[in-house]
Every structure is written in structure tokens, then in C-alpha cells.
Amino acid sequence: MATVTTDVASLRAPARALDVVAIVCAVVLPPVGAILGLVSRSAAKEAALVPNLVSSAAIVIGTLITGIAVLFVLAPLLAVVVFLG
To answer: Which top-rank group of organisms is this from (predicted)?
Structure first.
């Protein structure tokens, strides 16, 4: 009887250069990191590869940080309009 061994590392997609750039930009320049994460996912799908966790993390991190920054900018403006309006 033949034994089948499955290496867990072989099941995961490797981190590509665009994924690494996306995750770094997601922390430094969040909107750019989110866009690069989306580009990386679509490039992986076009190449018939499995999109990995790094590109997904870049999308999530970039989007969350951008959303929080937008809220911090808009909250004072909305407070002025609501309370003085």
C-alpha cells in the first residue's frame, strides 16, 4: 500500500513580489497598498494561481487604515456642520 504524504507548505501559494510590495504599501500608504493588493489578486487569478493570504491582508489592512483616516478627517467637519449648522 502506497503512503501519500502532503506537505502543508506546498498547498499554500508562495508570496510573490507584488504581494510583498502591496503589504508594505498597505502600512505606509494604505490606499496604494489596497489597490496593489487588488492588482496582485487579479494577476494571480489570470495566471491560474491561487491568490495568497498576503494580497488579501494588504487589501484588508489598506482599506481599514484608509477608512479610519477618512473618519478622522470627516468627523471634525461633520461635528462643525451639525453643532453650528
So the answer is: Bacteria
Q: What is the C-alpha separation between 49 and 30, in angstroms, rounded? A: 25
Give the number of other CB atoms < 10 A from CB of residue 13: 14
22 in a domain, yes or no? yes
In a domain, 55, yes or no: yes
Give the count of domains, the chain: 1
Per-residue pLDDT of the chain (85 residues; tens, 9 = 90+): 666 555 554 555 666 889 999 999 999 999 999 999 999 999 888 888 777 889 999 999 999 999 999 999 998 888 888 888 7
Indicate the pTM of the whole model. 0.75
